[in-house]
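Quick note —
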Amino acid sequence: MDDSNADTESCIEGQNIDIPLLPSNEFVCASNSPKGYTALHRCVQGNDNSVGIVKALVNANIDCLNMHGNSGITALHLSCQLGRKMITKSLLSFRELDVNIYNNDSFLADDLTSISMIKK
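Predicted structure written out below.
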């Protein structure tokens, strides 16, 4: 693959990480089966130290921010459900985030969180 036109983000959240971004960022929103999760969902599943990668994915393609898996879970739902405080705050910093998306069980992301600090 020729990535000579790829952009590189050399510093994310104070980390010295080089992340080449694909010239065509539609791959960021690609989902897999059976859950239909995107790369953003998978990053949220990892751990709360992935904030820099979360920001890089969203900045690469803002459309992935409100995408939901097969059960209606967005990255924000998943982040709240898993107690990812730093990632949740990062996701909430994007004005394009729709916090009023219900999952298939009729829950908002806020309904799934037990972290009082996030709710403030």
